[in-house]
Every structure is written in C-alpha cells, then in structure tokens.
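Design a sequence for this backbone.
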C-alpha cells in the first residue's frame, strides 16, 4: 500500500513539473492558442503587404503627377503627325470662332457649328456681305455689317432673327441670348436690344458726337443686365475717350440714363477700340496704351482696379479669354522683336515672354496661347514655356486645343486636321 501511494505521489509530481514554465524554455502551445498566434501572424503579414503596395502606389502616383506636370509645363514638342483629316463644306470663308465646346465656321452664305471630329452639328444659311460674329458662352449673334439682319443661335441651332431699319455697325450678345446692335444714321448712333427670339425690347440708347460721343465698341454681361461701351466724343474741339457702364436690372432703374459708371481720367491720351466682359465680376477696356481692368462686384458702382500703361503706339495686338488678357507689343529693349504680356482677369500679371515671329492671328484656349499665320504657329502655356514651334504644309485659319492634352485642332478654309504633338 505504501509502494502504491509512493508511485501515485511520484506521478503527480511529474504532472506538476510538466505544467510549470521555465524561463528561456519553449513549450508546446495548446491548439486554440496556436491558432490565435497563426492568425495574428497572418494579419500582420497582410498589413505589411498592404502597406508596401500602398507605398508603391503612392510612388507611382507622384511619379505620374510629376510626369504630367513636366509634359504640361516644361516639355517642348518638336514635331507632329496628322491623325485625322476631315474635309469641310466649301464656302466663302470669313472666319472661325470658339463656340460652346466646339467652333463656329461662318461664311457669307451661312454659319455651321462643327464639333471636334469635324462633323456639322447644324448649319444655318443666310446671305450677308460682311458677317460680324459675337459669342458669349453658348450663344452667338451673327449680324450683317452695314446690313439689317441679325441671327441669334445657340449650340442647338438658330433661335431667333431680327431686322433693323438702320445699318448695323456692331453687335454683341449675352450668355442668355439677348442681342445688342449698334446702328447709325447721319447724325446719331443708336443701340437697340432684342430678345433671343428676335423680338425687339423697349430699351434704347441714343448718342451723338456733341453729347455722350460716338460708340466704338460694346459688350454685354453674361446675364445681359449690364452693358459696357467705349465712346469717343468732342470736348473743346479735342477728341476724348470715355468708358461707360449701363445697368438694365432693377439697380439701374433709378439711375438717369441707366449709367452706373463713367471713366474718363484713365483714357485721356488713348483710344479704346475694344471692350469685353471677362469672368465675373471683371471686365477690360483695351486701350491703345494698354488694358484697363474693372470690377463690377458692386453692380451699382463699377470700379477701376488696374491700369496697365504701356509704351505709346507699341501695341500690335490684344486678345483674351474669360480668364486671361494678352497684349503683344514691339520690344525695343530685349532680344526678341516682340513681347507678349499676359494678365489674369483681375489685372494681375501672369508672365512676360519675348519672341520673334510674324503672327497674323492670336488666341487663348484654356491654358494655351496660340500665335499663328497661314502656315505656321507658336504655342505657349501659362508658364511662358514655348510648347511648340511648327511649320505646316497646309493652310491654317484657326487653331485650338484638341480632345487630348497632346493634340490640336487645326482648321483651314476647306478642312480640319487633328494633329498629335510629339
């Protein structure tokens, strides 16, 4: 009995020893604990893999952004290839205008809205000796200079037509389709207004040289409630220039002649042949001595915010988009024959670039500036980098951005080409 008890005690001691944990010594885990440890290790490995993949993806993303920035801002294209060539309807071409997301081609026989594949979205026929075109967003007005017809269109086609008694000298359209036409007789000038369907409105502005002056140009705001005009008038036998702002909304009802702003001092020694509304609330008067920028943040009191004074008689061209205004002038101090100055809509400078090139046309499309003649072009971006200097073996009338960042649409009298830059 004693031996049996002794053996039982010995077995219990061995069981206790086997359950004791000695530091530094590994012992087998139970089934549940082993499974838990394996799951933890698997989760840790997955997290590491995901983190590694995330880091790699971020590297590729930043590399892609860097490459995109380089190609858009720094890379200079050296050649091109034609990827599509589309014949256009023949006609007595007068010109092209950016319209909506595509272009208007207008002739003496009609106007066509052409998409970026060279397809006619719509065509409207007319007979005009010298068509004038004004575009504002998705609306366009085509008027017969020294004639009596105005056609109003949007991106879906013709929406209205108006007829005047006196000959037309200028036309403007709002982004809502209202049209303003400048008419004249032997003694006075008149501005008449028409709804987008061609119905005449009861708003008229009458001026003459001995009073407010002779209108040189006019433009309408996007909603058509404001109008900006430049006048030349006689004062003491001397011709003076004035820029005037009108308001046809409720704000202008209580103002005599609806004039909410008139500016003379900035234009003492300059003529203003062009005025234009830019992106809200800015507008610009293009004087012969430089652009003058205005803000209509307070519609009842437009404010002159920047007068860019350049060398007298040095300007050779001005052009603009909603976002930017550009001026080209003769350059008498630098290496280039000419100088390109670009400003934002608020008058703040963007860049200055000297160049030597005999351009005929100049356009801004998005973040690109196009200078071109009938067989070549220069393209700059808004960092002042010359992106392209190309010579074409076909006639050029208009250039604009293509569907992809490295493509351009080049239009001539009878064809459109999509070219890929390389």
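Sequence:
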């Amino acid at each position: 009995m004693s031996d049996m008890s002794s053996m039982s005690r010995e077995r219990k001691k061995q069981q206790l020893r086997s359950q004791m944990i000695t530091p530094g010594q590994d012992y087998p885990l139970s089934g549940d604990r082993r499974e838990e440890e394996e799951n933890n290790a698997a989760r840790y490995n997955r997290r590491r893999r995901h983190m590694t993949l995330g880091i790699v993806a971020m590297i590729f993303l930043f590399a892609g952004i860097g490459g995109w920035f380089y190609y858009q801002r720094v890379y200079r294209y050296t050649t091109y290839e034609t990827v599509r060539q589309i014949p256009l309807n023949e006609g007595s071409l007068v010109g092209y205008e950016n319209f909506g997301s595509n272009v208007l081609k207008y002739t003496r026989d009609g106007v066509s809205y052409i998409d970026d594949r060279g397809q006619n979205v719509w065509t409207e026929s007319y007979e005009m000796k010298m068509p004038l075109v004004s575009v504002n967003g998705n609306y366009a007005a085509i008027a017969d200079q020294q004639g009596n017809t105005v056609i109003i269109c949007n991106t879906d086609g013709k929406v209205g037509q108006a007829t005047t008694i006196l000959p037309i000298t200028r036309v403007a359209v709002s982004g809502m389709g209202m049209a303003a036409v400048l008419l004249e007789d032997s003694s006075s000038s008149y501005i008449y207004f028409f709804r987008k369907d061609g119905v005449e409105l009861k708003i008229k502005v009458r001026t003459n040289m001995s009073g407010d002056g002779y209108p040189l140009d006019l433009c309408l705001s996007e909603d058509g409630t404001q109008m900006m005009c430049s006048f030349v008038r006689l004062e003491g036998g001397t011709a003076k220039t004035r820029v005037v702002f009108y308001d046809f909304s409720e704000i202008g009802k209580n103002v005599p002649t609806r004039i909410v702003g008139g500016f003379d001092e900035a234009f003492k020694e300059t003529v203003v042949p062009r005025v234009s509304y830019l992106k809200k609330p800015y507008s610009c008067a293009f004087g012969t001595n430089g652009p003058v920028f205005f803000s209509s943040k307070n519609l009842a009191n437009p404010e002159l915010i920047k007068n860019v004074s350049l060398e007298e008689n040095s300007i050779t061209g001005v052009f603009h988009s909603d976002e930017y205004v550009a001026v080209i002038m003769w350059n008498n101090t630098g290496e280039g024959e000419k100088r390109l100055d670009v400003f934002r809509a608020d008058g703040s400078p963007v860049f200055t670039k000297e160049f030597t090139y005999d351009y005929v046309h100049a356009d801004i499309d998005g973040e690109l500036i196009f200078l071109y003649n009938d067989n070549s072009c220069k393209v700059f971006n808004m960092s002042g980098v010359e992106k392209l200097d190309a010579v074409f073996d076909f006639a050029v009338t208009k250039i604009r951005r293509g569907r992809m960042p490295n493509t351009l649409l080049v239009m001539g009298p009878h064809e459109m080409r999509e070219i890929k830059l390389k």
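The radius of gyration is 35 Å.
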